[in-house]
Each structure stands twice: as C-alpha cells, then as structure tokens.
Amino acid sequence: MTAWKARVERGFGVFAGRLYDSPKKMLTLLLVCLITLATQLQHIYFDTSTEGFLSPDHPAVRAYDQFREEFGRDELVIIGVQAENVLAPQFLTQFQRLYQTLEQQLPASEAIDSMINARYVYGRDDELFVEKLFDPWPHSKAEFIELRRRINSNPLYKGLYLDDVLSMATIVVRLQYVTPEPGVNARQQLARANEKTARFLQQLEQSLQPFRDQGMHLSVAGSPVVTDLLRTAMITDMQTFSKWIVCIIAILLFLLFRRASGVLLPLVCVLLSVVFTISLMGLFRQPLQLPTAIVPSFLLVVGIGDAIHFLSFFYAEFNQHGDKKASVIKALEHSGLAMFLTSLTTAAGMASFANADLLPISNLGVFTAVGVMSAFVMTIIVLPACISLLPLKPGSNDKAPHTSVLLNTLIGKAAHVSYYHPKKVIFVSFITLIAAMVAVLQMNFSHNPLKWLPDTLPAKQSIVTIDQQLGGSVSLEVLVDTGEQGGIHEPEFLRNLDALCQQLGAFSTPQFSVNKVLSITDLIKESNRALHNNDQRFYTIPETRELVAQELFLLELSGADDLFRLVDRDYRKARITLTLPWIDALLYAPLMDNLEQRFHDSLGASYQVTITGLIPLLGSTLNSVIHSAAEAYVIALVVISFIMVLLMGRLKLGLISMFPNILPIVMVIGLMHLNDVPFDMFSILIGSIAIGLCVDDTVHFMHHFGRYREKGYSVKDAIDNTLHTAGRAMLVTSVVLCSGFLVLTLSELNNFTHFGIYTSLCIVLALLADFLLAPALMTLLNKHD
C-alpha cells in the first residue's frame, strides 16, 4: 500500500476513535448547524416554466422579458368547444353562456376573446365601423347567412376562433402580465407568475365543469396548461418518490442487517443530507425545477451506499469480536478511503453539469454534488457517534441474505470465468462496445415538454385535439423595429411585411405547418376594404403614408381592441405572431434557421428584427442541453479518470480501469436509441450521473484487490476474496440503487420513467462489468505476478 493511502486510512481510524469517545458533543454541534440551516426551507419554490430553464441573463430570456414588458404576455389559454356545427342556434346559445360565464368568473385575465366578441370592420357612407361579429345576434335564416358571409370574408377568424370546417369554436384567454416588483429577483418573479397562473387554471376548471356536466365537449390547451401540468406532476412525484424510496430502502436494510440500528442509522444519515442540501437551495433562493425535483430521491438512493459499506464491515467485526469501539475504528479505517473516493467520483459526475447553460441542470450538478459529499460526512460522523451511544449486542454472521449458498456459487463462477477466460471476456466486451457505439452515434436530440406527459392524460389529449383541429396552440413572436416614430405608416414597409406574412403562413414541413400569421397588415387591409364600400379588391395596403396613418387613427378611435397588441403606441414597432402546433423543438429548426434572414431579406437590413416567444426559448433550451451534455461528459470522464489513476497509483492501470465504467454507459445509450428514447433534458443526464455511480463499484473492487495483492495473495485469490467480501457490499448497494431509481417509474411523467429505467439498467450492467470485466483486466495486467 502506498504511504499516502496508509496515512489516510489511519487518519480515518483516529477520527472514528475520537468520535466514539465524544459522541454527544459532535452530534449536538451537527444538529445545531442543520437546524439553523433548515430555517431556509421556507424559501423553496417551484418553477416549471420554459424560460425558467435558462438564466435570467440569457439573451433569449432578456428578449422575451422585454417583449412582454411592451406587449404583455404572449401565452394563451385556448378553450376549444366541439360540435357538429358551431353556427347552429342551439350551440351558439350555449357557447354564449360559456363565454359570459368565463368573463364574469375570470377577472384576472387580460382579455377573453371568441367569435362572440370578435370585431367586424365594415364601411358605410365613407365611415369606418368596428362592431362585434355577432351584432346583431342572428335569429333568422337570412341573418345566419350574413353571419357565415362575414366569417368567410375575414381570414382572421378561422384558425383563431373557429376551425376550417366549423366543428370547433374557441375562447382565447390572454393572461395578465405580472409587473416586476422592486427588490424581488427574476426567479421569484417568475415563480409568483406561475403561482398566479396555477390559481387561474384552477378557477378556469371550476368554471368549465358545469358545462362539461351539461355535455359540452371542452378541450383546454396552451403553454400555461403544459407548465401547470408539469408543476403539479412534479410536486406529486416528489412526495411519491420520497415515501416509496424510504420504504424500499428500509426493507432492504432490514433484510441485509436484521437489526433496527441497521435500518434507522443509514436512513438518518441520508435524510439529514437531504435536509442539508434542500436547505442550501433555499439559502441561495434556487427553485425546484423538473431536473432538480429528483435531488431528494437521488440523495436518498445514492447516499445510502456509504452507510451500507461501513455497517457491513462493522457488524462483521462486531459479531466476531464483540468490541464496539475497535469495530468502529476498524470499519472506518478499512472503508473510509473507499467511501470518500466513491462519494468523490459520484460528486464529480454530477458536478460536471455545474457550468451548464441551463439553470436547472447547473443546479442539479451543484447541489447533488454537495449533497453526495454531505451524505459521506453525515455517515462518518453520525454512524460512529450513534453506535457509541446505542446498546448494541453482537449477532450472528450467518443469517444475512447476502451470505446465501446461491450467492456464493454465483460469485465463485464470476471469479472463475474472469480468471480463466480473461481474453474471451475482454473480447466480448470490446465487440459489445463497438456495436453500442454505432447506435450511440445515431442518437437523436429532443426537447418537448409536452412529450413528457403520458398520452393517456386527458389534459394532453385536449392539447393534441386543439392542435389537430385548430392548427396550433403555441406562438412564435417576431418584433420589427422600424427605428422611427410612425415608421409603421410607411406603405412600402407594410407591403413587404404583408407579402412576407403570406409566405410564412404557407410555410410547411412534413411534420408541421404554420397555422396562422397575425400582423398589423391584417387590420390595415381590413379597414382599407371597409372604407372602399367593402370591396374585396381593396383588401390591400393603401398607397400613401397619409392614408395608412388615417386608417390606423380611425381604428384607434373606433376602439379596435387588438390594435395595440400588434403595434406599440408610437407606431414604431410591429409585432408578428405565428401560431404553430406543439411539437419537438428540433422540428422547428427549418423555420427558425431562416426566419430572421427572411425578414432582413424582405424588409431590409435597416430594420431591427427580434424573434422571441416560447418556440425560440425551446430552441435555446435544446441547444443548451446539447452543449452542456457534451461538456459534462468530457469533464466527468477526465475528473473521474484522474481519481482512478490516483487510486491505482499508475497511469496505465487507472485509465484501463475506466473500461468497465464506460462500457455500461455506452450500452445503455445505445439501447435508448434502439427503443426510440431521444436525448432530452433528462435522458441526457444519465451518462454523467451513471459514470459517477458506476465507478463506485470499480473503486471498491480495485481498492480491495490492491489490498489483497499487497498482503501477498495471488491474482486468483485476490479476485476471489475481493468478490466474496467487497463484492457482496457492491451487490447490495447496486440492488438499493436500482430499487431506488426504479421508483421513478411510478411517475406520470415519461422523462422520470425513462430516467429511472435506464439509470437502473446502467447500474446492473456496471455491476456485471465489475464482477467479470474488471477481474479479467486485472488478470491480464498481473499475469506475470
């Protein structure tokens, strides 16, 4: 054993002895610190918004915030009502009652629009009139014919308030913009806006329920709906995960140790680390978001490993010799360094995300890394101190399930195969790695929060229904700054803008089509036609700047509510809104790649064009995911490889020992591709998380193998003894890890389910690699010894 290892292990032994002699002092100090820090739990809040994925200083978020300050919130809640014919008198009467009910019961909304209050612009005697589409309310057959004529004459109605075949009518609710409060940071502002939206949606559902009971077929869609569904699922899942994981760990610990202390003490250690970590998030005012929602569950599962390794050795010694203090000292002296290194490698795997552009990914990296190390600290403090205070009695080493004959047989066969057939094991592993790499190179990236929701969820079915019938429920916003007050009045600018909007309205790919494009040109053409005796030939942009200004002024006087949703009050900036279906952000790329170029080519380089809204944010999030993942994988591999070289004492040996850790990760990513599970914000984390977890067993194997070799054991005996001692603890911790991560499959969210399944699979494959591939490598590398 190298000198530094010996000194470190002796240091752990001395530390354990001092803790054993003064347990109350250390436990009291620890509890005082934790209770003080736990006061920060009151500052924890939830955030599932799309803009919450990015830093408040991210250019896309800044542009979005500036847009909303000028034009209000762009998120729409769309209520779709299905019928055979939405212009049937009976349906219209019921639909009007629904509209009026929402107007009365949703005062917090900025505006509630539908065909009931949609504007109808027409001219008479050179005068411009802006009235309601349903003014007067139709009763006779002739009035219904006139109503249909009005609808067909204005392209704005269909795709917004009605579908093309008149089988769905919508009510579009515009949410109020929450004005920033002085002294409140951007994240908390966003959280308060989300809470307000959640209350609004609850009130909306209460208002809609009586109409559902009457038989109306109602669907609700929009980005606020998706955000709230994710928030609700996240809160529910966090509670479910924690309860089940604690129960499963308690059962496994009881089966392993058959002692109350063997169950309670490890759980106390990990629960204290969870409290410490979440309190730190509160201290730094960081939200719980979808990725960071797994922090408590992750720490419960991962943090328990140190306690299992310590207690396994302690109980074995204590049962044999009956001396508590000597057993505590020997247990920490024997396992302390390996526990520290495994905690360090897990923390390093998580910390590789610390510099991620995405705030929740960065927070996940930082706080889980801190949490893992805190679990190690809690373990080496709480366990020796509590064991000193508890009246424990020696037991038998023959009753634990991990000493079964079957297990002994399986471990013996693994040792036999890896020692006598090392080249075959390595060859099969290498071929498997190459095959998996082929699949990995074909892996697709994705970012679609809607896809995280199960297809069977009624709320998701509503969103899909509205997207299919109406054409879209999310928006992309383009802001064009003319650079001068009244710049919107320029006819050439408006004609170029109108031509571009028509081109964008026809944009289509095999996966999606632009549903609708709204701009100020629609209102101007509408008013120009009205002022020319409603002649369709004049549904064009006026010839002169003066006529444009005059018509906009008339619209302003006539009270066209949506005028200043499309331009600012200085007539300097024009807003263009594209509505699209909710699909994977990757599929928007053909539109996003050339949208800004199209505007510059059509309008000229003198105009400032800003593209914002939900879709660009989704695109920015996807790009950040890809960049962060690539960076994190490299950082994790480099840092963990360095730790392995340090442990092994030789560069060559340390790098070779990484093979059993890389193989399971590549295999799992390859399997994800074969099962059509794309790289999204969650699945992309599996690699870096898994390498930090998988390397733990390798560290224990290499550490114990090295100790047996230094004691003079042959390679065969060192492998055999390592697998029958450390291998048992490795098996138990792997079972605990797999069981804990499989709890995530109880989630309603597909991303949590995939994360749990493939992380568990990675742990199983890593255990197999450490029982077969790692010993095979050691056999070949030490064949001359």
Secondary structure elements and pairings:
Layout: H1 3-21, H2 23-38, H3 59-71, E1 76-82, H4 89-105, E2 109-114, E3 119-124, E4 127-132, H5 141-153, E5 168-175, H6 186-213, E6 217-221, H7 223-257, H8 260-283, H9 295-321, H10 324-351, H11 359-389, H12 405-420, H13 422-440, H14 449-452, H15 458-470, E7 474-481, H16 491-505, E8 516-518, H17 520-530, H18 545-558, H19 563-566, E9 573-580, H20 589-603, E10 608-613, H21 614-648, H22 651-656, H23 659-674, H24 686-710, H25 715-742, H26 750-781
Antiparallel strand pairs: 1-5, 1-6, 2-5, 3-4, 7-9, 7-10, 8-9
Helix pairs in contact: 1-10, 1-11, 2-11, 4-6, 6-7, 7-8, 7-9, 7-25, 8-9, 8-11, 9-10, 9-11, 9-25, 10-11, 10-21, 10-24, 12-25, 12-26, 13-23, 13-26, 16-20, 17-18, 21-24, 23-24, 23-26, 24-25, 24-26, 25-26
Task: Summarize this structure as a short list of keywords or feature phrases.
single chain, 785 residues, alpha+beta, Multidrug efflux transporter AcrB transmembrane fold, 4-stranded antiparallel sheet, 26 helices, 8% strand
